[in-house]
Amino acid sequence: MSTAAGPGGPAASPAPGAAWVLLPVAWCAWLLAWLVPSFLVVPHLAVERVWLVREAAPQAILAAAAFFLVAVWPFWLALARREAPRAAVSAKWLALSVLELVMLVALAAPFVLVAWSVGGKAILAGPLAATVGAWAVFGLGLRVAAQAGQGAARWLMLAAVLVSVGPLILGYAAGETLGVGFPRLVEASPIVSGIGLALGGWPEGAWPWIAAVALWPAVGMVLGLVGWWRTCREQHAPSPPRRVFDKLGG
């Protein structure tokens, strides 16, 4: 609902409620779009492709969920907002963000069941829960940092996209040009590490465990703490007139 403009003032931007309603619609449409190839495209292909087989449905839904939770959802308010005032990072705002995450995970459950059923794979509850938790913590940290830092959302979104698909692009380019692979570099992507954890079970070895379980949640927690600290510092900082007064008063 929009509010009327004051005398001589600009019209107020719409309330963020429309963006909140659009979020589950966009989420479900995004997940469905990644499942469509397994149902509609595969039967018409003479030669099966790696990502266009029914067995790849779980990988497709996991890749879609990872990219949305890491590179889209943290910046949803910034993408939907035009000139509306920026909401402060508070306990209430954080609780609403966690509620959004719970809603998205609940809406994704039917898609997960369909994907695993089509792919003919058994659901590994523990690793799958750890995968979703890692993406959720990383995405929540990005959202807090983007909300706390004025003008930082676009750069954080670019960084989230790069860490998601950058290792995949570099690994593919190295394989095509140099003929060598960099599995550790590719596993640094939250998409690749999450898919490996959710479908392959608990990893073995120090680096696979760090990449799949600990790396991105730790980064998200650091980003969230930095954003929270910055918000607290801004809230307790003296106003500009007070600063001037303090300087004049010595």
Report the C-alpha radius of gyration, rounded: 22 Å
The helix tally amounts to 10
Helix/strand structural class? mainly alpha
Question: Kindly state the mean pLDDT as a whole number?
Answer: 81
Q: Using the alpha-carbon principal axes, give the shape.
A: globular
Number of domains: 1
Query: What is the helix fraction of residues, given as a range?
Result: over 70%
Could you tell me the number of beta strands?
Answer: 0
The arrangement of helices and strands along the chain is HHHHHHHHHH
Question: Into which percentage range does the β-strand content fall?
Answer: under 5%
- State the end-to-end CA separation: 48 Å
Uncertain regions spanning at least 5 consecutive residues: 1-15, 239-250
TL;DR of this structure?
The protein has 250 residues and is mainly α. It is built from 10 helices and no strands.
Describe this structure in words.
This protein is mainly α and 250 residues long. It has one domain (17-235). The protein has 10 helices and no strands. The protein has helices spanning 17-41, 57-72, 76-80, 91-119, 125-148, 153-177, 183-187, 190-200, 206-236, 240-248. Helix 1 packs antiparallel against helix 2. The longest helix has 31 residues, at 206-236. It is globular, with a radius of gyration of 22 Å. The termini are far apart. The relative contact order is 0.11.
